[in-house]
Amino acid sequence: MTSDDKTFGRLPDHLLVEIFIRVPVSDWVRVSCVKKLWSSLFRCDSLWQAALLRRYPFAGSCKRWPGPIPQGLSRRRFAALYVTSHILALDTDLDEVVGHTFLFLKDQLEILDMPPSLAILHGTMIDQFIACGRSRDEAHELVSCIWLGVIDNLEENENTFLILKRLAFEGNVFLPYPYARSEEVQWRVFEKLFTDFRGCLSKVAKHCLAVRRTLDHTDPPDAFGMIGLKPKCCADGVFSPA
User: Fold this and answer.
1) CA 192 to CA 189: how far, in whole Å?
2) pTM above 0.85, yes or no
3) Share of the chain residues as helix, strand and coil, in percent rounded to the nearest 5
4) Cα–Cα distance between 136 and 179 in angstroms, integer?
């Protein structure tokens, strides 16, 4: 260990926090792996609170909002604002609410055991924005943007295939506006399945999907209701994406 390493290791925690929050976010994972002490600092709320106030000064004056989706602690709030500015690229007075809603949807979709109804998830997000004073049209637009952002940022694995399959099968029948998912979201599901998971579809499914995509008047879920989507497996039963 060099003298510089020893000196840096003797720095008090609050100075380390001030240094770390000035490091690019993309490097935080690597920094936290250097020492156990540094890793423990990244698990402390004090570091995330300092990072939150440094990068998003307005967050200190943000009050808790009504609705079914809670605000969360500093780490969750930082992640929500980071998502809004870097993934969704939105700039509204509800930035943090949008980010929290994105994280809420992503977390719920990744539940493997007893996943919630997609229609209920959509309705919960709509109700959240309406409770915060948004109009039905604004709520529908924001939730559609969140759906697209989450779908585009899902990893290419078996769980994502099953999520997209559920989205394709769960239609919007009997759901009034704005509680029905937008056509743009439905077509993004089709596009994702047809490109990223093309190898998981049978030849018949590919043909039906290609035909349905050319019919502007066809509701996307109906196309998947006509064909069976089953993931292909390797010899050992492991999921095999395209």
Assistant:
1) 5
2) no
3) 65, 0, 35
4) 9
Distance CA 40, CA 30 (A): 13
Q: Which tokens belong to 68?
A: 């079914």
Long-range contacts from 30-37, C-beta under 8 angstroms, 24+ separation: 35/9, 37/9
* Whether the Cβ atoms of residue 157 and residue 101 lie closer than 8 Å to each other: no
Residue whose structure tokens are 């930035």: 95
Residue with tokens 């743009």: 184
Give the tens place of pLDDT for each residue, 129-180.
999 999 999 999 999 999 999 999 988 888 888 888 888 877 665 678 888 8
DSSP secondary structure letter of residue 87: I
Residue at 90: amino acid letter: L
DSSP 8-state code for residue 219: -
| CB contact at 8 A, 152 and 191 | no
3-class DSSP assignment, residue 200:
helix
CA dist., res. 72 & res. 51, Å (int): 15
- As a whole number of Å, the CA-based R_g of the chain is 22
